[in-house]
Amino acid sequence: MTTQTARGRRRATGPSPEPRPVVAHMAERPRDPHRDERRRRRSPFRQVTEFAAASGVGQKAGIALAATGLVLTVTVPVTSPVMASNMGGSGALSAAVQPDVTAAAGAKVDFSRTAVTTKGDPDGKLKQLLSAQSVGSITRAASAGTLGPPLDHLVTASPFGYRVSPITGGAGEFHRGQDFAAQCGTAVHAAASGTVTFNGWHPFGGGNRVVIDHGNGLETTYNHLSSASVKVGQKVSRGDVIAMSGTTGASTGCHLHFEVMVNGDVVDPLGWL
Question: In the chain, which segments carry CATH 2.70.70.10?
Answer without folding.
Answer: 122-271
